[in-house]
Amino acid sequence: MVDGGGAGSDGAGPGGAGRLDRDVWRALGDLGFFALRLPEAEGGVGLGLPEAVLVFEEAGRVLLPGPLVATHLAAGAVPGAATGETVVAAVDCGLVEWLAEADVVRGDATGAVPLRSLDPLTPLHRVPAGRPAPDPLAVLLSAAEQLGTAVRVGELAAQHARAREQFGRPVGAFQAVAHLCAGILVRAETARATVYAAAVTADPADIAAARLLADEAAVRGARDCLQVHGGMGFTWESEVHLHLKRAWVRAQRAGGVTESEEMLAAALASGTA
User: Model confidence over 188-209: pLDDT tens digits?
Assistant: First the structure.
């Protein structure tokens, strides 16, 4: 996911990617993105976790950058977070996304060291502090973003398979390509069912299962989408490789899949899942 080459916090890629657009951040605040689950009496939208999951799914689908989860979860607790005036980052199992751009950092970021991120739109730092238990809501919202990526790469793969021709036929007519597209769809829809269910129950075991399936759908889906596109998928004119890189970074949140696997296994062993 990361390279310890010390690239600094502004990432890499065309156009100086890695800088947060404060105008966009405030616009998200005006739209209620961060205050979605705050009660109306506190200036929020007054909706619930299922609605937040739908919004974060769309954010993942369009590769919206920034510490979205951390700022959303800070709304109501950190002044200005709900309105987008304050950018909030959070220490997440030894990693911090967007540390240099944050106005407030939740957790101990002392001694943070910049890392070269595979995703040019997600600057990273590593911190030597301990590894607090992951927040289940943060895990679920990250899974929703992964679901958005899984859905988007399915769309991109299908579009390319219909439009690209070889030997006088769309490449989607060839069985190998059709199977790749079908696999992307099946994994995305399986992940969608589990993520939506976890948003309703908010059960930690359900969230762990949703995270595992969403990570798989996003990472494998993006990789298969690259296979469908061939070399075109790696160019800067294509968004496919960006979805894969973002999915890799998200998959390392909350301690990686191992944390969720252990939680789900413990729930299954105790009969609570």
Answer: 999 999 999 999 999 999 999 9
Task: Name residues whose C-beta falls within 8 Å of residue 64's C-beta, 6 or more positions apart in sequence.
Answer: none
Q: How far apart are CA 126 and CA 181, in angstroms?
A: 36
Distances from the Cα of 150 to the Cα of 11, 31, 106, 211, angstroms? 24, 25, 29, 13
Q: Is 67 helix (H, G, I), strand (E, B) or coil?
A: coil
pTM recorded for the entire structure? 0.89
SS3 state at 121: coil
Tell me how long the chain is: 273
- Report the b/e string of 57-85 with b at 16+ CB within 10 A: bebbbebbbbbbbbbbbbbbebebbbbbe
Edge-to-edge strand ranges of the sheet holding 2-3: 2-3, 113-117, 124-126, 95-97, 88-92, 104-106
Cα 114 from Cα 95, distance rounded (Å): 10
Q: How far apart are CA 36 and CA 42, in angstroms?
A: 11
